[in-house]
Write a structure and sequence with these properties.
Elements: E1 6-9, H1 18-28, E2 32-37, H2 49-70, E3 74-77, H3 83-95, E4 100-105, E5 113-114, E6 117-118, H4 126-149, E7 153-163, H5 177-200, E8 203-209, H6 216-221, H7 224-233, H8 241-252, E9 262-265
Parallel strand pairs: 1-2, 1-4, 2-3, 4-7, 7-8, 8-9
Antiparallel strand pairs: 5-6
Length: about 270
């Protein structure tokens, strides 16, 4: 299905990351992947020892997970909060002759969530708000921009992003700051679908996935009770990571005329939640 194609997979933190399931399915379908992880790059300036230690640990976990789950796979450091890093990353792919048939945007960050508690929106600082918006939403625009600037992202490519129902509704597992960023991500998806479809025949879609606790992000925000509640509210029960992977692989298929969609892979939770 995906023979002779290559896709960029962002947002892998460990083997349980949703992006990892997508990468494995792409390879199973005959495609190749380039994977990115958060780490220390030449563009990080004046990092504290704590920050440097966090980034180094994150990148080592990423490398180990990719090696164990995907084997010999091209990996790169990518910090989506730094334009300079995105620029040099895209140029590096171009210099290596790598051409992409699409990419998965699975990047998000929200410093207002700590120990599974959500900071009240009224207490969110401008920096916290803008940091979350930059990494979780605006990065989709910048990543697309630089990959096109260096002719890495090919005509007819497919872009997919990850979202969830909290972008549209206040849910039983409360989010605040990042919900707004995800709503922006979904709006960006629609606008890019129109703009890139007309200019490059590129498709852009976003998927709202089930409540999922397996990833680092899920563990930071959810409890077992949240998972059980979502499972009961979903007519088919919570969707599994492989359900998401199959849907993204479908949207990555060449010459598919689906774009600008906010799709649900959530066992029907969206009709009751």
């Amino acid at each position: 299905m995906l023979a002779n194609t290559t896709f960029l997979i962002t947002g892998i933190a460990d083997k349980h990351s949703l992006a990892m399931f997508v990468a494995k399915q792409i390879i199973k379908q005959g495609g190749k992947v380039v994977c990115t992880g958060l780490g220390v790059s030449e563009h990080h300036k004046n990092l504290s020892e704590k920050a440097k230690g966090f980034l180094n640990k994150n990148y080592e976990d990423f490398k180990l997970a990719v090696s164990q789950e995907l084997g010999d796979t091209h990996i790169e450091i990518l910090d989506a909060s730094l334009d300079e890093n995105i620029d040099s990353f895209a140029k590096n792919l171009s210099d290596k002759g790598i051409k992409l048939n699409g990419f998965l945007h699975a990047i998000a960050m929200d410093k207002t969530i700590r120990k599974k508690e959500v900071k009240p929106l009224l207490d969110v600082t401008k920096d916290e708000f803008c940091d979350t918006m930059n990494v979780s939403a605006y990065s989709l625009i910048r990543l697309s921009h630089y990959l096109l600037k260096y002719n890495v992202l090919q005509k007819g490519a497919s872009i997919c992003s990850l979202s969830y129902i909290a972008a549209a509704k206040v849910t039983f597992h409360p989010y605040r700051n990042i919900s707004i960023a995800k709503a922006a991500l979904e709006r960006i998806t629609v606008e890019l679908a129109d703009e890139l479809g007309r200019s490059h025949d590129i498709r852009v879609n976003v998927i709202r996935f089930s409540t999922y606790m397996g990833s680092k992000a899920g563990n930071a925000t959810l409890t077992n009770k949240d998972i059980e509640t979502a499972n009961k509210m979903s007519p088919l029960g919570n969707a599994k990571p492989m359900d998401l992977a199959h849907e993204i692989v479908h949207l990555f298929r060449p010459e598919l005329s689906i774009t600008g969609e906010i799709r649900h892979v959530d066992g029907g939770y969206n009709i009751t939640g």
